[in-house]
Amino acid sequence: MVQIVLLNTEDIRNNILKAAMIAQKFDVAGRVVTVQHTGEGNVNETYLAIFRTTFSEERIILQCINKRVFARPEYIMENMRLLTEHVHRRIEEEMHTSDRIWQLPRVIPAKDGKDYVIDADGDFWRAITLIASAHSYGQVQSVEHAYEAGFVLGHFQRMISDMDVSLLHDTLEGFHITPQYLKKLDAALETSEGQARLHASSEAERCKRFIDMRREWCSVLEDAKKQGLLKLRPIHGDPKISNIMIDDATGKGTCIIDLDTVKPGLIHYDFGDCLRSCCNPAGEETLDLKQVIFDTDLCEAIVKGYMVHGRSFLTEADRNYLYDGIRIISFELGLRFFADYIAGNVYFNTRYDEQNLNRARVQFKLTESIEAREKQIRSILENLG
Ligand code: GN1
Ligand code: MG
Question: Model confidence over 192-218: pLDDT tens digits?
Answer without folding.
Answer: 999 999 999 999 999 999 999 999 999
